[in-house]
Write a sequence for this structure.
């Protein structure tokens, strides 16, 4: 089961990576702890040696994918009924090596979702996840022209580069830096911001 409080793991097995990918798709715009439980419930129907993607393929072959998602109230059915099959297709991007752009080609996967998956599953990730916490942080650091909502156009890439530059000023990896910023703003300042070089 996915533990949203310990999301970074560079040593996931193939099945764990598949589960994390499905989590990334379903969690967008939802509460992470609730969606982790929902995904666990969804995957309970697997056979003992069946991986998450094999299970989804079987549900598709048996025409039961939608019914199984609805049985546990997974939500976002139109999105997931397209995104899950695209994720498990023979020509789907390889989870271990696909670029953020390749992952974003899957229905329902945006810049943020693709980068979140890469950042928290690959040690050498050269991406930043832009969310409202990051936007607040960048405004706090004095960057001008930072919007209040996450852009879905080329401005995303500009903001991503700003965040990566800020992360390089710390002694943390991009993943650690991302979590520190998220923890600070989601705790209303109770968790400290990362220490930065001047």
């Amino acid at each position: 089961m996915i533990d949203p409080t310990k999301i970074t793991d560079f040593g996931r097995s193939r099945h764990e990576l598949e589960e994390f990918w499905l989590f990334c798709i379903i969690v967008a715009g939802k509460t992470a702890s609730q969606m982790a439980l929902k995904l666990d419930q969804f995957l309970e129907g697997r056979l003992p040696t069946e991986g998450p993607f094999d299970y989804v393929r079987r549900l598709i072959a048996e025409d039961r994918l939608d019914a199984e998602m609805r049985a546990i109230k997974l939500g976002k059915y139109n999105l997931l009924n397209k995104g899950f099959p695209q994720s498990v297709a023979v020509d789907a991007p390889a989870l271990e090596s696909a670029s953020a752009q390749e992952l974003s080609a899957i229905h329902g996967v945006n810049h943020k979702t693709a980068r979140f998956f890469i950042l928290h599953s690959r040690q050498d990730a050269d991406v930043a996840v832009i969310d409202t916490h990051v936007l607040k942080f960048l405004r706090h650091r004095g960057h001008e022209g930072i919007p209040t909502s996450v852009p879905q156009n080329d401005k995303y890439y500009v903001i991503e580069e700003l965040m990566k530059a800020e992360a390089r000023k710390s002694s943390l990896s991009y993943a650690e830096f991302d979590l520190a910023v998220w923890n600070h703003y989601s705790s209303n300042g109770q968790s400290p911001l990362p220490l930065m070089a001047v």
Remarks:
- The chain has two domains: 4-119, 132-186.
- The CA atoms of residues 56 and 62 lie 10 Å apart.
- Residues 4-119 form a domain with the Endonuclease III; domain 1 fold (CATH 1.10.340).
